[in-house]
Amino acid sequence: MDEERALYIVRAGEAGAIERVLRDYSDKHRATFKFEPTDEDKRKKLCEGIFKVLVKDVPTTCQVSCLEVLRILSRDKKILVPVTTKENLQILLRLAKLHESDDSLEKVSEFPVIVESLKCLCNIVFNSQMAQQLSLELNLAAKLCNLLRKCKDRKFINDIKCFDLRLLFLLSLLHTDIRSQLRYELQGLPLLTQILESAFSIKWTDEYESAIDHNGPPLPPQETDCAIEALKALFNVTVDSWKVHKESDSHQFRVMAAVLRHCLLIVGPTEDKTEELHSNAVNLLSNVPVSCLDVLICPLTHEETAQEATTPDELPSDKTAEKDTALTNNAMVYNGMNMEAIHVLLSFMEKRIDKGSSYREGLTPVLSLLTECSRAHRNIRKFLKDQVLPPLRDVTNRPEVGSTVRNKLVRLMTHVDLGVKQIAAEFLFVLCKERVDSLLKYTGYGNAAGLLAARGLLAGGRGDNWYSEDEDTDTEEYKNAKPNINLITGHLEEPMPNPIDEMTEEQKEYEAMKLVNMLDKLSREELLKPMGLKPDGTITPLEEALSQYSVIEETSSDTD
Question: Does Chaperone appear among the keywords (predicted)?
């Protein structure tokens, strides 16, 4: 009934009546996402009627009402097939200021029309394959970049910028060809990076360092939304950047990484928005070539160096808050480098672990990022080692028992999701400089067995990557407890009485043969398969492992 009345007025009424009836329809169906199939044909005709109104010279308020209803109707994929034509899309492009004209964004009264037109385009492109093909033909990505340049340094038009970026994200998500066009032809990487700089109001203090006001206000909601959309679009643009990395791109990636460092050190209007902002920053950092991630840490400024040199005892007793600040700052410093951004990433990772769900989507990106940073940058690895794997003192509990970051990561090493447990184990392995003996000290053999089997390191040794040769120092508490630590569980166990101490030699031989017979029976019935280690450290059936060792011994004898 609503569609019939609206369609009748749209076809025969004047602008004022059209505006009123469509405003009523919009108010009533604002939250409607599922539509009655019986009224499908009426909705198609209403869409067609609205496009006919939009080509006429009607007031701005009438255009807005038309576009609001069109946005609601475009949620229904079925009605978009007949109305998604090149001519209709060109109408929306003109209203969104995406046509070829060089018009500037001066008329504030037109802003609501531009925003609603962009919203309609977002829905139509997302829900219609025909619209996606037409967007390529109409070179929509280039038009969106041109509109972004018009509003790059303008204030009070964040809605336009936000939905422009959202549409750019959708296009680059749905069409891989557009990613390449954005990256190279349209210079999307510097353009979107500048959008982020503008959203964060960044003031550069050095080539890759920005001023951070820790006591400043949170990022405004609209700027936060713009930044999130820009981060998502940048992710698509750079998704294959690890494959092609020219030296000329290095500067641009470093600038982007510096902007993302700034992003990690600020907060949004709410805790949820801050997490969403940081989550998208982490995803984008995963696309940055690892050699450019050194800008995440930076040398201390003169003020920070002076503050770090001031110990808490040197501060007046009545300045308790300043003592806390000094302690906090010292916790973020390693080897003269500011580690705030890395500490934020570590805290973000711990929050994702504590959530206890969606580990693959929410946790693996930040774990992978920290792993690659640690593998490539010594200072980052050593700082994270201090934070995650501090020197062992109390080893009475199993490594997976407790509430420290180490305990949480060790628990993930036996997670049911193969990808999650692999990246968690890899992170700890890299922090241990890929040395098996060091990893086992912190995790126990049982928790690390999966990683060591996959790497062919069950017999010990170290990984393929090179690390500095500085040795770990054990605490006195650990040295004293070490002889009684169970290597499998990784914790201190009181000496247990040996059950065979009081057996005679005949009893020992009898129990040994009994065990051999039981294992033989399980093996013959294929309920259990004895395994052995090949010379390269990987697991193989016992017969094959023994035969390989026999070949090696025969070769050695022939050589002698």
Answer: yes
Both tokens of 481, joined, read: 């407890």
Ranges 205-219, 261-275, 319-333, 503-517: which has the least confidence: 319-333
Assess contact for 276 and 231: CB atoms under 8 A: no
Q: Are 223 and 289 in contact (CB under 8 A)?
A: no
Dump pLDDT digits (tens) for 455-513.
888 777 777 676 666 656 788 888 888 888 888 998 888 777 888 888 899 999 999 99
Neighbour count for residue 147 (Cβ, 10 Å) = 21
User: Do 62 and 34 meet the contact criterion of CB atoms below 8 Å apart?
Assistant: no
- Residue 535: both structure tokens together: 């010379």
Number of H helices, E strands in the chain: 28, 9
- Whole-angstrom distance, CA of residue 9 vs CA of residue 22: 9
Q: Which two tokens stand for residue 400?
A: 């997976």
Please list the alpha-helical segments (H only) found in 107-139: 111-127, 129-137
Lookup: tokens for 348 = 């973000």
The arithmetic mean of pLDDT across residues 373-393, rounded, is 93
CA 166 from centroid of its chain's CA atoms:
18
Q: Two tokens at 190? A: 């510097």
Q: In whole angstroms, what is the distance from residue 155 CA to residue 218 CA?
A: 17
Q: Is 85 helix (H, G, I), strand (E, B) or coil?
A: coil
Q: What is the 3-state secondary structure (H, E, C) of 498-524?
A: CCCCCCCHHHHHHHHHHHHHHHHHHHH
- List, in sequence order, every residue forming a beta bridge with 338; answer none if it has no partner: 298, 333
pTM value is 0.85
Strand partners, 333: 338
